[in-house]
């Protein structure tokens, strides 16, 4: 095993099996929900669109897509040092996020089978897609002498409870932002093949279409429940979830900017593009969008980036724990203040008319 794999963050549970990344506010979450409430939803307002999406899921456009070819059959020891560690982290985070989706969708499919068969089949078919994604990523990790024990991950992770409407907000944004992340990387590397350091990126074009279809499904579900989108609470929660998803991605990616640099991408420019595109998508279903064209939005995120650097420095110091907490407190307060100011920035109203949903 190369020495770089023994660095902090790449520890093994046993030979070839990576210790899962520590759970933090910025790591992918595992979710559960109120299955009984979801089973009682009336889909009739938008049932035709949901049935059309179900037919697309049944076609299974990518059933032959996730097959490794000869380009993987080589040593990857030339990707070493910090780049190797960052790349393994990217694969792990992506695998964990896809596996989280698989677990949630699979459980929803099982729980809704007898009460809401259309939703159940959609969730089962989306879990099929997410399982392929997670499996493909975990196999990629094995090229770097690592893999994730997904069974252990299932049992060891804490699960966040969200009510159904919050599950829809969060998963819609997760799928749409996943689409823009994958397609942006694919388009860049298609134009600059010299930066394609590993063949998995060649799969991102078809792969991201799964993400897009999943996002369209959650769009259709929310449209079938107008009460989730057309009151003052929906406007507040839309802002919250948009900000949460954008801020989490930005803080994670800027922290790992060297990984994106290895692909020939500027992490900040990449994230701004992905945020703007996802925000535009959200404006087609949510009652509002964030004003992400305002430079203040990114200036405040950059303050959070600097705060997180200082927090990491304090965490790695030899100071006693009580002193560390005192040293960290101003930066926690500053992060909270920056996020609050971004939340309070005037949003862009996307409602076509008062009391209607776009």
Task: Give a short overview.
This protein has 358 residues and is mainly α. The chain contains 12 helices and 6 strands.
List keywords for this structure.
358 residues, mainly alpha, two-stranded antiparallel sheet, two-stranded parallel sheet, globular, disordered N terminus
> How are the strands ordered across the major sheet?
1-2
Structural class designation: mainly alpha
Helix content: 55-70%
Query: How many separate helices?
Result: 12
What's the number of extended β-strand segments? 6
Q: What Rg do the Cα atoms give?
A: 21 Å
- Beta-strand residue fraction: under 5%
Query: What gap, in angstroms, lies between the N and C termini?
Result: 55 Å
Shape: globular
Low-pLDDT stretches are 1-8, 352-358
What does this structure look like?
- The structure is a single chain.
- With 358 residues, the chain is mainly α.
- The protein contains 12 helices and 6 strands.
- α6 packs parallel to α8 and α6 packs across α10.
Topology:
Blueprint: E1 12-14, E2 17-18, E3 30-32, H1 35-39, H2 47-59, H3 81-111, H4 117-142, H5 150-156, E4 159-161, H6 164-191, H7 204-223, H8 232-255, H9 257-262, H10 267-282, E5 288-289, H11 295-315, H12 321-344, E6 348-349
Parallel strand pairs: 3-4
Antiparallel strand pairs: 1-2, 5-6
Helix pairs in contact: 2-4, 2-7, 3-4, 4-7, 6-7, 6-8, 6-10, 8-10, 8-11, 11-12
């Amino acid at each position: 095993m190369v020495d770089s794999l023994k660095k902090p963050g790449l520890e093994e549970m046993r030979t070839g099996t990576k210790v899962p990344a520590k759970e933090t506010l910025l790591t992918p979450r595992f979710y559960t929900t109120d299955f009984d409430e979801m089973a009682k939803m009336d889909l009739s307002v938008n049932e035709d669109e949901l049935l059309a999406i179900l037919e697309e899921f049944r076609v299974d456009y990518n059933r032959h897509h996730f097959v490794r070819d000869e380009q993987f059959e080589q040593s990857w020891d030339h990707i070493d040092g910090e780049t190797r560690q960052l790349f393994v982290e990217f694969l792990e985070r992506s695998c964990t996020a896809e596996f989280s989706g698989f677990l949630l969708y699979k459980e929803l499919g099982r729980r809704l089978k007898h009460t809401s068969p259309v939703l159940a089949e959609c969730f089962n078919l989306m879990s099929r897609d997410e399982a392929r994604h997670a499996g493909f990523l975990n196999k990629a990790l094995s090229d770097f002498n690592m893999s994730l024990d997904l069974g252990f991950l299932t049992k060891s992770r804490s699960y966040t409870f969200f009510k159904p409407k919050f599950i829809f907000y969060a998963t819609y944004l997760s799928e749409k932002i996943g689409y823009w992340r994958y397609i942006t990387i694919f388009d860049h590397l298609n134009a600059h093949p010299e930066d394609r350091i590993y063949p998995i990126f060649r799969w991102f074009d078809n792969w991201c279409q799964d993400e897009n279809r999943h996002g369209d499904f959650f769009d259709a579900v929310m449209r079938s429940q107008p009460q989730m989108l057309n009151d003052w609470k929906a406007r507040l929660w839309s802002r919250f979830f948009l900000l949460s998803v954008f801020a989490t991605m930005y803080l994670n990616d800027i922290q790992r900017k060297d990984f994106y640099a290895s692909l020939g991408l500027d992490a900040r420019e990449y994230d701004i593009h992905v945020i703007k595109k996802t925000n535009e998508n959200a404006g087609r279903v949510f009652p509002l969008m964030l004003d992400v064209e305002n430079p203040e939005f990114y200036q405040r995120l950059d303050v959070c980036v600097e705060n997180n650097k200082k927090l990491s420095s304090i965490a790695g110091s030899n100071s006693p724990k009580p002193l560390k907490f005192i040293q960290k407190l101003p930066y926690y307060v500053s992060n909270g203040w920056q996020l609050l100011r971004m939340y309070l920035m005037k949003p862009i109203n996307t409602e076509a008319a008062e009391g209607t949903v776009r």
